[in-house]
Amino acid sequence: MGKPTGFLDYQRQGNPSQAPLERIRHFDEFHPPLDREERRRQGGRCMACGVPFCQSGAVLNGMVSGCPLHNLVPEWNDLLWRGHPGHAAARLLKTNNFPEFTGRVCPALCEAACTCGLNGDPVTVKENELSIIEDAWAAGLMEPRPPKVRTGKRVAVVGSGPAGLACADQLNRRGHTVTVFERSDRPGGLLMYGIPNMKLDKAIVRRRLDKMAAEGIDFRTGVDVGKDVTAEELRADFDAVVLCCGSAQPRDLAVPGRKSGGVWFAVDFLTQTTRALLDGAPFSPTAKGKQVVVVGGGDTGNDCVGTCIRQGCAGVVQLEMMPKLPDARNENNPWPEWPRVCKTDYGQEEAIAVFGHDPRLYQTTVTALKADGKGQLEAVKTVELDRDLKPVPGTERTLPCQLLLIAAGFLGAQRYVPEAFGLELTPRSCVKTPEGSYQTGVPGVFAAGDMRRGQSLVVWAIAEGRQAAREADAWLMGQGG
Fold first, then answer.
1. Prediction pTM value
2. Residue 99 and residue 11 in one domain
3. Which residues does 479 contact at the CB level (< 8 Å), separation at least 6?
4. What is the CATH number of the domain that holds 169?
């Protein structure tokens, strides 16, 4: 423990944030880092607890508390404080393949479980993590390191999101020859196209992909497994297959007028926006000059709000079926459980700055869509809901709307890939595997990430990819088949 009184001597200091009215002018990241000495002090706030809940990944009251990757948080916080950035990076990379991703987009389950947060402010674990890995890149410590020996085994990883990349990285380190298949035009999955550039700059994703390619991983884009390549061909050409295709079946709105023009699933809208940015092309679809309604109050809905504001929307409303969460923890939600409290994220902050009010309408749902004479959306009809999610008579409203974005979550994996491999699905449309295992019912075929777990976090996808790689490696080397 480098600074025994650090949690008393230093106040929590997070990375600064560019003002909302400034950052909406661009799609770049807007959290400049702290100077090195202040970041060192933030590492010194870590108490090096006897029981580090931050790295536990334990399930408490149905919610995970602490890091699912079991990151060695107290160790690298101590090394950060002591001024040993290289050693800190080595300990960080021991459990996390991609700290530059989680350090930007993870909701920081570690911080919610930090003991400092019991009676004060938690340690800036997430930002410390990001500082350590970015310093490692800047210092030239992240040079490609291909394996010196190859096993002769060939593995196909289908899907290049965080689960697929983590799995491919681990298997490649073990000396297997790994090919990653991605149906999109660029690898990266949701890291590339599902998360907006202002949260995760695509140059950061490209940097990691280039390193993995230099270490021997073959990325094949524009290949849709199950359509362009059959399951039989993959199984014949590779010794093992790991499916990491995500939970890409979006939840739809079953309301009159659904086929009106101007209705998009959030993930498709965000994908098109990022692709246009990367290609230097005009936004299509665009929110410019339009009244926008976003259905869904989660992180993806918030990303849609921030994106539409940057595109120049005339107004934005975000609908949430559930009641507003409390502003502070309730007694039945004690530390170190994940705090079920209301969070105002960057997109909502920007909407407040631009339009003067919070865009969220709670306990409200869409009942119908209204189109103009050309079939284009012009309004949505809504109704308020009671605590049992039943419509409240007399609360009907009509909101002007020319662009409706559906960010209501996902229903599981798209079926054509598991069907191509003859795999069984769970009632939630996830690939079925035995509890605690990533092996499907087909020998040599594994599944990981949202495809197996259901819609979740990047940190969980990385954890799943690592565990699937471990199981696939054992199988390949004769311990499992």
1. 0.96
2. yes
3. none
4. 3.50.50.60
